[in-house]
Write a structure and sequence with these properties.
This protein is mainly alpha-helical and 69 residues long. It is 59% helix and 0% strand. It has a domain of 36 residues. It is elongated and about 80 Å long. The termini are far apart. InterPro entries: DUF5989.
């Protein structure tokens, strides 16, 4: 036997540290899948739609959005 410790062939921790960081959406999707927090998805969709509506209401598209309400 040798005195040096044997390293595993595939060091998962080191390979994940060298990998590029996932984006915000990919990380959020992984969070939803892993923690099974699917009830957050409709809240997020409504918030995104309200944000898009707020951005569009301050632009040239505003006269076309107001008749929707």
């Amino acid at each position: 036997m040798s005195d040096t410790p044997q390293q595993p062939a595939s060091d998962d921790f080191a390979s994940q540290a060298d990998a590029p960081a996932p984006g915000l959406l990919a990380e959020f999707w992984d969070f939803l899948k892993y923690n099974k927090k699917w009830w957050l998805l409709p809240i997020l969709i409504v918030l995104v739609l309200l944000g898009v509506l707020a951005v569009l209401s301050s632009s040239v598209v505003a006269p076309f959005i107001y008749p929707v309400f």
